[in-house]
Amino acid sequence: MASTVCRWGILGAANIARKNWKAIRLAENATLTAVASREPSRAKEWIDGCQAECPFPAAPAACNYDDLLKRPDVDAVYIPLPTGVRREWVVKAANAGKHVLCEKPCASNAGDLRTMIDACRAKGVQFMDGVMFMHGKRLPLLRSVIDDGETVGQLRRIATQFSFAAGDDFLKGNIRVSSALEPLGALGDLGWYNIRFSLFVMKYALPTKVSGRLLTEHGGGGATVPLEFSGELFWPNGVSASFYCSFNTELQQWAHVSGTKGSVAVRDFVLPYYGCESEFVADRPVFNVKGTSYHWESHPKRHAVTEYSDGAPDAQETNMIRTFSALALGGRPDPVWPDVALKTQVVLDACLASARNGGALVEVK
Asked: Is 104 a catalytic residue?
């Protein structure tokens, strides 16, 4: 009889993994068997903290990375290890027959990501990047509104911003500004979401050309990472997209889709504002001129789905774990997920190559 519960391991006790600990606990088709760190004692301390707040019936085991991958009671691994060392452990996990949910950015470059995906494909295991908003109920509703032919009309422009003001302590010690551990900086940590949203709107058609600008960097001696980045993407049908990601600007997570008839605004496209609904607003303004009166009228329409923002059985991170677990248990990997991850990485790489060349247009291949 086939198992109905996917047994998870977490490879690395990162802060973001706490959120997925809870998501695994809430997903009815998942459980957590083990957590690994370089030192099992650190994994044990991390487990104790999570278990005190959101307990599993049996506490997961603490172990090191290699031992976790040898465990027969682990079907899938979530890997939030730093990007600079992630390729090694994704390949090892795949070779051990474990399905892989990979934190983003998936790799330091597209070549590394292809190696990781190829390893998973060779062993018949699922690969997916950990972009939680892809699994929210709002996204299908947004897709239907963009595609209805009337709300937006013919698509013309996409714009997104994802930023937070990091502060001095972050810049002194956080791994996201380490060129060895997170060489893509804000572009990888935040820009991955910007690029993914634009690709989603474009139904994953790749832009043909991109440009990028390194607005602010951190570090020295040729080992800098982006702190603040802007990019432009261009499709052959005339659609363009701009994005801005930054560790210097206060928290914003907005997206705006514009066309020939109207626009759609999402204020919180990465993590929905806290509450029981995920929403967005469509608008078709009208400019009425009558004599000396010049009236610009807004005609907004709110669209929403019932869905808790986080930490709930229907939250997007729980849906991600639920979806991944079903794929792992089904034994037939879905090739769409590694494909969209690779497309995101390819566009990101091209934007960075442009920025390193003074913003010159770069073809996407």
From this structure: yes
